[in-house]
Design brief:
4 domains; nine-stranded mixed barrel; TIM Barrel; binds 2-acetamido-2-deoxy-beta-D-glucopyranose; Jelly Rolls
């Protein structure tokens, strides 16, 4: 298992993105002595230009208990700012009902950042994408009459303005904007809109103008940005997203605006079944240094610095429960080397010369066909230099100011005094870390478990009826991943082999005829729809057709998300099209309704001894917390697909059986935050859709050793 784990980690991709902000111009309307401005060079805080390294840490993807240590490790890693989105659907899951406690306590998170002396970039959105369910929009918006998301559409604008105002007012009343002495130096409105703008025709551009005006009208005293929006209206700053914005960005849309590099989410987050490759520390450092040297970069954000966990059903369609685990702080909050240390050294080298960079003048000179020097000189003869050996060239020895420097291939040497190399992006001195998972509790014996069958729904027992196949999200309202489509099908004579075929818009289908399992199919991230075709035997008379359609997260991107559909689209048995037949629906599982995963719900149910593995089963066990303070993970390698709960808290979906082309699962260990655990008798409940056996499950401790 340890070996398999290690291979998995190596193959996993670095969910990395850089958000790079260039220097800025035009003074933001800074009423009330607003202390945050920008000019053509950088953000200006309290009258000083700042070269800021920032990292994304999303508060609901960890726990309040973890926040102080995550922030402190980010600070030790040389960051000056923490960037987070605001998650609308966590804060207002039902219209007008707001939640701001526990993992949703954004104010507490920001006060923690502030108390450790770091700045905040608050990306309100409130559409955020972020591999988060519905891109952060609350599902109730779907049912607002006449709504068109993210468009020049009154209903959408009213709700977007309402929530944005609510958040801004909350920040103001807690004095969290820098203009009030707080940590927030930047805010973001909308998110990567240009990607979808064409899809809205002439309703796109006025929406962008409205969003900018609305945001600016909230008078926060700190600048606003829009990422991936080349035409962001003044004074909102337009930003670039991508891995290589140093090469691809079209530039600021006015001479008074900075070039901003936000993020490119497409390459790097993990979805089930993908083989992803890790982005090396050297590559990240190279692009950051190039952006600073060549583009006057003055704001750099790592997306993600700590990814964390998509608890519950918060992951978007096909996204893993683990989020950007290969970041400098891993899913458990442990330091990942050499990435963390290598970037820390880069930050230190830049900090040593940041005044020269921000206030000096730049020249460049050629050191060879592929080699350049970028030299910054201050008024009092301070000097800082970047010696660049461009991507594509071999290692080179270059002469710069009468000295020879050896620069490895695709690397940049930083000389904070124009003499001594303080850092080279390809020379990694931090030792590689290895993460160790050690089984602390093995739940390997039959006596440790109890089980319960989930009931296969049948038409006669459903109350929700329709003469057509209903769209899934509009039917479940996202109260569950599960929707039963049931029908009663009359067969004139017994048949050994009748073809049943089902077309579904996604994501997973498990089919039963007369209570017997007949087959499963699933879609993929790229193609979420599926077709199931089976020959089945039917009885003479009425047959119970029970089709369990399962979503693995809501969409999080694309134009017109309100029109997206999922669930069954067509059902045929033999020659009969059942699409307009009477269908009975059951939203969610019986076990979900009974809340089997809580102490109370679990006590009310009649559990029995563990028997052979079979489909659609609930399992429960109890375990004592592993001793010590190491992070804890649940190893579900022996399971198939489902969801897991600890003391009533969902630690997320699992899908071990969806293998990558290398025949490995995408994720087998699931984070159990220490704060979910009590010393003894922790209730573990699983819902398993497939044939997984709980006897292989262990509770592991997670630690890191240096190679
Ligand atoms: C937002 O909507 C709520 C009701 O859902 C209402 O009470 C409140 O006044 C609205 N706020 C704004 C700023 O429109
Ligand atoms: C973002 O990634 C996509 C591929 O997923 C690529 O086509 C695009 O060029 C990237 N954007 C930038 C700005 O680098
Ligand atoms: C998943 O893999 C496919 C095929 O290799 C690739 O096209 C896609 O970009 C990957 N998706 C993500 C989210 O990485
Ligand atoms: C999303 O996460 C929050 C806490 O971070 C949790 O309370 C909520 O139940 C989750 N939502 C879903 C749909 O699982
Ligand atoms: C070097 O500076 C010149 C003049 O300012 C500019 O035209 C050129 O693009 C720069 N070269 C590089 C590689 O930045
Ligand atoms: C380099 O050497 C030349 C001649 O030896 C000398 O004139 C020049 O000042 C030196 N430059 C630096 C930066 O030391
Ligand atoms: C969604 O369901 C409601 C009933 O709950 C129905 O009136 C409406 O037409 C449905 N909308 C769509 C798009 O299917
Ligand atoms: C179909 O379900 C009903 C209700 O549970 C049950 O009475 C009936 O026996 C089932 N029919 C078959 C053929 O299994
Ligand atoms: C997606 O999958 C479905 C079902 O397997 C198939 O019919 C369809 O052609 C696929 N679409 C694309 C674009 O590959
Ligand atoms: C179903 O049976 C027919 C013949 O009765 C056969 O041609 C077909 O291949 C079978 N389909 C499947 C999916 O087994």
């Amino acid at each position: 298992m340890a070996q398999l784990m290690h291979n998995l980690r190596e193959r996993e991709m670095v969910g990395w993105v850089l958000v790079l902000w260039l220097g800025m111009a035009v003074v933001a309307a800074a009423a009330l002595g607003g202390q945050v401005r920008y000019d053509g060079r950088s953000i200006i805080v309290d009258g000083h230009r700042k070269l800021i390294f920032s990292g994304s840490i999303h508060y609901p993807r960890s726990t309040p208990h973890m926040w102080p240590s995550l922030i402190s490790k980010a600070k030790q890693g040389g960051l000056h700012a923490i960037d987070t989105y605001v998650f609308w659907n966590l804060h207002e899951p039902q219209q007008g009902q707001y939640y701001f406690s526990g993992r949703r306590d954004i104010v507490r998170f920001m006060k923690e950042v502030h108390s450790q002396g770091l700045y905040v970039c608050l990306r309100i959105g409130p559409f955020i994408e972020a591999e988060w369910s519905y891109g952060g929009l609350p599902f109730w918006l779907h049912d607002v009459p006449g709504i068109v998301f993210r468009s020049d559409n009154e209903p959408f604008k009213i709700h977007m303005q309402n929530f944005t105002t609510k958040i801004v007012n909350m920040m103001k009343s807690e004095k969290l904007f820098a203009s009030q002495g707080g940590p927030i130096i930047l805010s973001q409105i909308e998110n990567e809109y240009q990607n979808v703008e064409k899809g809205f025709g002439d309703k796109g551009p006025p929406y962008v103008r409205w969003a900018a005006e609305m945001a600016v009208g909230l008078k926060t005293g700190v600048p606003w940005v829009m990422c991936k929006q080349d035409d962001a209206p003044d004074p909102v700053i337009n930003a670039c997203n991508g891995l290589r914005c140093g090469e691809t960005f079209v530039g600021p849309n006015s001479p008074n605006k900075p070039a901003i590099w936000t993020e490119n989410w497409t390459h790097f987050y993990d979805v089930y079944g993908n083989i992803t490759k890790v982005r090396a520390a050297e590559d990240i450092a190279y692009h950051v240094a190039l952006f600073i040297a060549k583009m006057n970069g003055a704001y750099i954000n790592y997306y993600m610095y700590h990814g964390g966990t998509n608890f519950g059903r918060n992951a978007s369609a096909f996204s893993l429960t683990s989020y950007y685990d290969p970041a400098p702080l891993d899913e458990y909050g442990l330091i990942r080397q050499p990435k963390w240390g290598h970037l820390k050294e880069l930050h230190e080298a830049i900090d040593r010369c940041s005044n020269t960079l921000l206030y000096g003048t730049k020249t460049n000179l050629s050191l060879g066909p592929w080699q350049q020097a970028y030299v910054y000189k201050g008024e009092r003869n301070e000097c800082a230099a970047f010696l660049v050996n461009a991507n594509g060239a071999n290692a080179a020895a270059v002469r710069f100011q009468n000295q020879t420097y050896n620069i490895p291939r695709k690397s940049i040497s930083i000389l904070p005094d124009c003499k001594t190399e303080a850092f080279n992006t390809a020379k990694v001195s931090s030792k590689e870390s290895r993460r160790k998972m050690a089984a602390a509790v093995e739940l390997a014996s039959v006596e440790m478990w109890q089980e319960l069958d989930e009931v296969v729904a049948v038409f006669d027992e459903t109350s929700l009826r329709s003469n057509r196949l209903l769209e899934q999200m509009n039917t479940t309202k996202d109260t569950s991943d599960y929707l039963w489509y049931t029908a009663s099908y009359e067969q004139s004579e017994e048949s050994q082999s009748t073809k049943i075929s089902v077309n579904s818009g996604g994501h997973v289908l498990r089919a039963f005829v007369n209570g017997e399992f007949i087959g499963s199919e699933h879609g993929t991230y790229r193609n979420q729809s599926l077709v199931l075709e089976k020959n089945v035997s039917l009885k003479r008379g009425m047959n119970n057709i029970s089709l369990l359609s399962i979503m693995v997260g809501l969409p999080d991107s694309g134009a017109h998300m309100e029109l997206r559909t999922s669930g069954l689209e067509k059902v045929r048995i033999g020659e009969t099209d059942l699409s307009n037949h009477p269908w009975g629906y059951q939203v969610g599982l019986k076990g979900e309704k009974m809340q089997l995963y809580t102490e109370e719900g679990s006590r009310k149910a009649k559990w029995r001894k563990l028997s052979l593995a079979s489909r659609l089963k609930w399992y429960k066990s109890k375990f004592d917390a592993p001793k010590g303070n190491d992070p804890v993970a649940l190893n579900l390698a022996s399971m198939g697909k489902g969801e897991a709960w600890i003391n009533g808290e969902s630690i997320g979906r699992y899908w071990i059986s969806f293998l990558t082309p290398l025949a490995t699962p995408s994720q087998i260990q699931f984070h159990i935050p220490r704060s979910f655990l009590k010393p003894r008798d922790n209730l573990l409940v699983l819902f398993e859709e497939e044939w997984g056996s709980p006897l292989g499950i262990s509770v592991d401790t997670v630690s890191v050793t240096m190679a």
